[in-house]
Amino acid sequence: MVGKRQITTMCPMNCMPTQCGMTVEVENNKLLSLKGDQQNPDSRGFLCIRGRASQEIFENPKRLLHPLRRVGERGENTWEQCSWEDAYTMITESIQRTQPDRVGLWRGHGAGTTGPMNNTLLSRFGMLGGFQQWSTSIVCWAMGGYGLGLTGALKTNTKEDMAANAQTILLWGATLASQPDLAPHLVEARKRGAYIIHIDTRRTEASRHANEVILLPPGSDAALALALAHVIVQEDMHNQEFIERHTLGFDQFATHLQQYTPEWASAITGIEPERIRGLARRYAQQTPATIVMGGSSMFKHQHGWEPARAIACLPALTGQYGLAGGGLGQRHGASPEGVGYANVLADLTPQAPSATSIPSHMTSITEALVNRSLDVLLICGSNMLSTFADSNAIAHGLEQTGFIMSYDLFMNETARRYADLILPATAWLEVMGLKQTATHIYLMEQALQPAGEAHSLITIIRELARRLNIDNIFPWRDEEDYINAFLSAQKTETGEPLTVEHLRQQKGYWQKNNLSHIAYLDHNFQTSSHKVEFWSERAQQAGLAPLPSYTAPAGDEYPLRFCQGRTLTAFHAFFDEGQALPTLAKANPRPELWIHPVDAQKRHIERGTSIVITNKRGQFEAQAHVTEDILPGTVWMRDGWVGVNRVTSGAPIVPLAANDIVSGIPGGQAAYDAWVEVGAK
């Protein structure tokens, strides 16, 4: 790849549903420049600090460029370079020494920086090989989707619809760190006169776009939603026609709501009863109203499905599903009505669960590791110590696992401590890829040859399948043909399937077929009744509350409620917790804990003080960020730091009997709950 070229691609950060466009310039296999793509229909030239910093992957002295095998004991972090032949032999012999169901495949965001191809082929590898594999949504957005799925409202309106039509916008746990492309649409809506309310556990960058900010204690969102529903019904602001035609169980729900008064919710949320009534009136009367829900953080507690279940009922009560400017706004793990990728696994017959299957249930996975039920674990683009709740148990489980491989761009804490083999990953510009947003599909052309001895994950899977005699792993001519398989659900103007070549002719941009900016125009909801279910028989049969509910958190001997989330300057544990890229390392030099001045003063803590966060599970060190942007009694830290989950709970949120009652969305997230004490170091 010689000569100066300009290439349009997408950011590798995976801030779904946000995916920002990039324009890169390369020459002689070197990256010369990287900037936001002004023509991208979604991002319009925007590129945050994370995207801009990604150019520091290349020619980075910390980047992994050769296979490495462990020398000495685990935890010593001593390695020697080995050949790919040796690496493949280590993996295949480790798999051949055990049974397929004692082999696990775990993938993280790092495996999806170029779209669905890696993860889909890993799934194919697992299905054909008989290996254990799991939905990694359980460390992120799954509990939100689970609650929405029980109610029946998984589809969303688009950000474009919100900008053009919503009169009231509730940003409920939604941050621009997860959805940076939402910001210009909020600006458009507000210029048009929309009223924006930000509801969260702390003030964030999204608060600057709001007319009003409401701070809630962590885990109290369901209480507020139920109180809003109470007011809507009590004051006769509900849409009886919509309820009769498109919902199930309203009479039981209305009776159930009588207990959830604004006064009851005020004692839990700290919000004055009249403010709760005012919020309910605005939402029900200043319509259309859109609720943009957060994707992950607001669901990371012991009863994490309850907020989504309750919030999803509000548009149904007011008849706003299927309306321009109504319903639910864009959300991580969700999409609007329209055609997306084709199912390229459709040629495989799903295997019935066996007695040895380990479900997509974080507590069960941790127990399997601790109980030595896995002999081989292949980790692709993930730092499990940073992403799993109760990392102490995960660490113990990894120590029990016979052979662990890590595939990544940089070393990470899981690899340093527990890997036996480390494989160098390709960066997103070194392979061809494909990404989709809520509205568009984008081509990612290969811009550079892989650095060092880095191999693509597709190459590795195909070679392992060959050596293990796993047939039918790659029934496509080449990787472009593989991408064509994903595109085949899209039809061109002539009715032919969309291809990479045709996508190139469209400058790499493609609006999805049959796209509707408004979800549920047909009022066909994702439940067996095809209605919004206030009463859920599925939930009742699985041992969960059949009606939307709020469960108070269990008390604890520690005084401060700890929670975590995302910032614009980091993305989970990417790039060795952000420390491998100079720009991100400068923005995040060490863990920083947000603490209210009242709590800080009691503990003789000032801004910048070195502190220790402690509970009975463990402890870790950080620096204090004293701020009134968080409530007293609550402390907060960005996720991705390995130490964060030394103090969090790995208890299950739902029992195994309830894990799979929402199609395609497991309820297997662990609680992540934590109560802590903080003291000066």
Question: What's the N-to-C terminus distance?
Answer: 53 Å
State the strand order across the main sheet: 5-4-15-14-13-6-7
Helicity, as a percent range: 25-40%
User: How would you describe the shape?
Assistant: globular
Mean pLDDT equals: 96
Give the low-confidence spans.
none
Q: How can the largest sheet be summarized?
A: 7 strands, mixed
* Beta-strand residue fraction: 15-25%
Q: Could you walk me through the main structural features you see in this protein, from its secondary elements to its overall organization?
A:
It is a single chain. The chain is of the alpha/beta class. The protein has 24 helices and 25 strands. It has a 7-stranded mixed β-sheet. Strands 20-24-21-23-22-25 form a 6-stranded mixed barrel. Helix 10 crosses helix 11. The N and C termini lie far apart (53 Å). The mean pLDDT is 96.
Task: Give me some keywords for this one.
681 residues; alpha/beta; 7-stranded mixed β-sheet; 24 helices; 25 strands; 28% helix
Topology:
Layout (H helix, E strand, L loop, with lengths): L4 E6 L10 E7 L2 E7 L12 H5 L14 E3 L8 E3 L2 H13 L6 E5 L9 H13 L2 E2 L8 H10 L7 H7 L2 E5 L10 H9 L3 E6 L11 E4 L5 H14 L5 H7 E2 L1 H8 L4 H8 L3 H13 L3 E5 L12 H6 L1 H5 L44 H9 L5 E5 L3 H4 L3 H10 L2 E6 L4 H6 L2 E4 L8 E4 L3 E5 L12 H11 L11 H9 L12 H6 L3 E3 L20 E2 L3 H5 L18 E6 L8 H4 L4 H6 L4 E4 L1 H6 L7 E6 L2 E9 L7 E5 L36 E6 L1
Parallel strand pairs: 6-7, 6-13, 8-9, 8-12, 9-10, 11-19, 13-14, 14-15, 20-24, 21-23
Antiparallel strand pairs: 1-2, 2-3, 4-5, 4-15, 16-17, 17-18, 20-25, 21-24, 22-23, 22-25
Helix pairs in contact: 3-18, 5-6, 7-10, 7-11, 10-11, 14-16
